[in-house]
UniProtKB/TrEMBL annotation:
UBP-type domain segment(s): 171-279
Recorded superkingdom: Eukaryota
Binding site for substrate: 205, 217-220, 255, 257, 260
Lineage: Eukaryota, Metazoa, Chordata, Craniata, Vertebrata
Annotated catalytic residues: 331 (nucleophile), 809 (proton acceptor)
The keyword Ribonucleoprotein belongs to this UniProt entry's keyword annotation: no
Name recorded for this polypeptide: Ubiquitin carboxyl-terminal hydrolase
PANTHER family: UBIQUITIN CARBOXYL-TERMINAL HYDROLASE (PTHR21646), UBIQUITIN CARBOXYL-TERMINAL HYDROLASE 14 (PTHR21646:SF10)
GO molecular function: cysteine-type deubiquitinase activity; zinc ion binding
Length: 849
């Protein structure tokens, strides 16, 4: 065997030194989920920076000729037993800080490892030790050591990013240094505070400008205050307030209404002394805002019930029972992907692809979505990584297994699906429903030909609008992947209990129980199935605004149905909140009665006439150009008309809406489509269209097929064309849809499903045949949707714990072989009492008749 120094010198030219910005895949194999923790460790190619497990590194060497690899192995350290405790584990401290992995915050089990890194030369796997490096030329030592140093530095930063989070970092208020304080003679006593308006004695704040003592905000559950401190700021503009009862020699809770956040006040002792408060003698008598937030996030029942914390759960291992590591607030991704790979379409159309491509890929594409989807599916379903995690305590301890698994850490997958996205590319908590739709959208884009597993969820919705004055109807269809059910709080079956709890809280009873609203599932479905009243509907039959009813029905039933319970909403003060409800979601569901019937015999349709445009009277382009009503010339002038005509909009209403935080284009459309009838009508329009895919898209006037600055002959995106064609439409139809919606994909998809009748008759030749028939092709089949009976059974649900989508935790329950299983990141156990009434996303599959 050749001298290791000579071998290393011979491959030195293939060793690239990573530069800032380079990503070295040192934690996950490119072809599997092997990691440095697994037997054999991980081999990092010192040229491509890809990682390979011990079973794949020889293949990579044979295909590429690369010889130099960095071999990384990690072994878990054994925790030293605490001599002061019999169990060896110190008691967990109660969290006092809204943080993770930081002193005073929530504990995380930070596993301690010993890491070994060495250079290995293939094919003989010659190892280059640190002693060998000392005898080699400086150029070799510097290159290798820099590579190793880069890995170690990157590893530390990654650990800090994932394992630590501090939600209590506060900034100095910009008002603190020069805060105005009135010399009004107000002196605040050291105790016995009451709101100056309502006499409330809890959640009391003192304004640091005028010393006014008032109650704080009302929380979403009815507790807290009556908003008098906030109203005082709105009336006076005095920005800073301190929470009385939280003042100690070490500080206090200070809130800036102007900056809308908890802040620091470096001059707090001086500001308090102005009103006779000696900060050094004060003692804490009220819970701080951090303690309140921790208490709310650990609301009684929700966390314990959803995670089934009160029972000893039996760990499960085997194919389809593999846990997923939390990569830093990635529980939303873990829960959704566990459920999706229970669906046969994702199993059969993803996993076989892994076996098809993996053996033949010398260097797999890190950006190949289909490959990483298949890789994740194999990791979850094969059972290869479904092994108990080693006990961090005494290895000789024969105690019961904890339920944790080694599991998989899909870091490459998470990075890929989040790339370029403002939310999913971060380590912040996200909405599982939004991620599910984002992932389905990625599947659609990457399955332009061949099998598309998202078809399992795709269905058509029919909307029937009936003008109440003419009784004529309009039918439109759109594609959807999810049913969103509102929560009618007024339909709670325990109203008396809720009212009694509210009454006791208003009276200041600190022992008032927390009562969860009981909402019947039938009430949620009724809100979906009952006709909706449209008060400002423009009827083409009567050429005026009138009242109409809109009914929504299923034009097709998918193989798998997703139902979202819309628990997340906004309060009257536009603060996000989560409805604390229990809904008796059924195990079986029959939606046959919601099947769309289409146009009824003898029913007349509304004429296809656009509503009149609101335009300035001095820009009649056709008149300026000498237009005299010749219909054949209309197409010549319509592009100019669309570019030159400007709608008359109430600027004050637009400004008010923008100040509330809504996008400018959405505000313009709200004012336009409500006919400049005022802020209330425009706000109602916004609230009814916030979920529209084109909500923030530019306003396109009726009759104009493209946005400002474009023409009907504008080129369209080939990528968008391919996506729409993959759904079953012709290229001509896709082109027309994109040109009609300014090349915006989401709007084009909605447009095409709303104009199916027009599309069927487009491109008709003089002989009366369509272009497809003239070329000998079959007519386009339309959207590919599956259909069948509307009877379903529940097989999975995703639950959320916490107060909003920005915080908390997700788990999922899946029914496997008639046994409910809870997937809580790396913990996979048999469920004893699945909390089906507290779910957020419910997944049903069709029952064969």
């Amino acid at each position: 065997m050749a001298d290791v120094g000579e071998v290393l010198m011979s491959v030195l030219s293939t060793i690239r030194v990573p530069k800032p910005g380079d990503r070295v895949h040192k934690d996950e194999c490119a072809l599997s989920f092997s990691s440095p923790d697994n037997e054999g460790g991980l081999y990092v190619c010192m040229n491509s920076f890809l990682g390979f497990g011990s079973q794949y590194v020889d293949r990579h060497h044979a295909r590429t000729g690369q010889r130099a690899y960095l071999h990384i192995t990690r072994t878990r350290k054994t925790k030293e037993e605490d001599i002061n405790t019999g169990s060896g584990h110190p008691p967990k401290k109660k969290p006092t800080r809204l943080a993770i992995g930081i002193e005073g915050g929530f504990d995380v089990e930070q596993e301690q490892y010993e890491e070994d890194i060495k250079v290995v030369i293939l094919p003989d796997r010659q190892e280059v030790t640190s002693e060998d490096l000392t005898t080699m030329p400086d150029v070799v030592k510097e290159r290798v050591r820099y590579f190793v140093c880069f890995l170690e530095t990157d590893s530390v930063s990654h650990t800090l990013q994932v394992q630590q989070w501090d939600g209590e970092v506060r900034q100095e208020s910009r008002h603190a240094a020069d805060l105005k304080q009135l010399d009004n003679g107000v002196k605040i006593p050291p105790s016995g505070w009451r709101c100056d308006v309502c006499d409330l004695q809890e959640n009391i704040w003192m304004n640091l400008t005028d010393g006014k003592v008032l109650c704080g905000r009302r929380y979403f559950d009815g507790t807290g205050g009556n908003n008098h401190a906030l109203l005082h700021f709105q009336q006076t503009g005095y920005p800073l307030a301190v929470k009385l009862g939280t003042i100690t020699p070490g500080g206090a809770d200070v809130y800036s209404y102007d900056e809308d956040d908890m802040v620091l006040d470096s001059k707090l002792p001086e500001h308090l002394a102005h009103f006779g408060i000696n900060m050094m003698t004060m003692e804490k008598t009220e819970r701080t805002m951090t303690e309140l937030e921790i208490a709310v996030n650990q609301r009684v029942g929700e966390w314990e019930v959803i995670q089934e914390s009160g029972t000893t759960l039996r760990p499960l291992f085997g194919p389809g029972l593999t846990g997923m590591k939390n990569l830093g607030n990635s529980c939303y991704l873990n829960s959704v992907m566990q459920v999706l790979f229970t669906v046969p379409d994702f199993q059969s159309k993803s996993v076989p692809f892994f076996f098809l491509i993996a053996p033949h890929a010398p260097v797999p594409s890190i950006s190949l979505f289909v490959y990483h989807r298949a890789k994740l599916g194999y990791g979850l379903l094969s059972g290869e990584y479904c092994k108990p995690a080693p006990d961090p305590g005494d290895e000789n301890d024969a105690s019961e297994p904890r339920g944790d698994q080694i599991g998989i850490a899909p870091q490459m997958f998470k990075a890929l699906v989040g790339r370029g996205h403002p939310e999913f590319s971060t380590n912040r908590q996200q909405d599982a429903q939004e991620f599910l739709l984002h992932f389905i959208n990625m599947v659609e884009r990457n399955c332009r030909s061949g099998a598309n597993p998202s078809e399992a969820f795709r269905f058509l919705v029919e909307e029937r609008i009936v003008c109440q004055e003419s009784q004529k109807a309009k039918y439109t269809q759109r594609v959807d992947y999810m049913v969103q059910l509102p929560v009618p709080m007024d339909q709670a079956t325990n109203t008396e209990d809720l009212q009694e709890a509210e009454r006791r809280r208003e009276e200041g009873d600190s022992a008032a129980p927390t009562v969860r609203a009981q909402i019947p599932f039938t009430a949620c479905m009724a809100a979906l199935s009952e006709p909706e009243i449209l008060t400002d509907f423009w009827s083409s039959a009567v050429q005026a605004k009138t009242t109409a009813t809109k009914t929504t029905r299923f034009a097709s039933f998918p193989d798998h149905l997703v139902i979202q319970i819309k628990k997340f909403t906004f309060g009257l003060d536009w603060v996000p909140k989560k409805l604390d409800v229990s809904i008796d979601v059924p195990d079986t569901l029959d939606l046959s009665g919601l099947r769309a019937t289409g146009q009824q015999p003898g029913e007349e349709l509304l004429p296809e006439v656009a509503p009149p445009s609101l335009v300035t009277p001095d820009v009649e382009v056709k008149g300026i150009l000498g237009y005299h009503g010749n219909e054949e010339d209309d197409s010549l002038y319509s592009p100019l008309l669309c570019q030159s005509v400007s709608p008359v909009l109430d600027d004050s209403t637009v400004s008010q809406l923008c100040e509330m935080g809504f996008p400018l284009e959405a505000c313009k459309k709200a004012v336009y489509y409500t006919g400049n009838t005022g802020i209330d009508a425009a706000m109602n329009w916004i609230m009814g269209h916030m979920d529209d895919p084109d909500f923030s898209a530019p306003l396109v006037l009726p009759g104009c097929s493209s946005g400002p600055g474009t023409t009907p002959t504008e080129s369209v995106s080939e990528e968008h064309l391919a996506t729409i064609v993959s759904m079953g439409f012709s290229r001509d139809q896709a082109t027309k849809a994109l040109r009609a919606t300014s090349n915006v994909l989401d709007r084009a998809v909605d447009w095409i499903f709303s104009h199916l009748d027009d599309l069927e008759s487009m491109d008709v030749s003089e002989g009366g045949r369509s272009a497809a028939e003239s070329e000998g092709r079959d007519p386009p089949p339309g959207p590919r949707v599956r259909d069948g009976p509307g009877k379903y059974e529940l097989f999975a649900f995703v639950s959320h714990m916490g107060t909003s989508t920005m915080c908390g935790h997700y788990v999922c329950h899946i029914k496997k072989d008639q046994q409910w299983v809870i997937f809580n990141d790396q913990k996979v156990c048999a469920s004893e009492k699945p909390p089906k009434d507290l779910g957020y996303l419910y997944f049903y599959r069709r029952v064969a008749e």
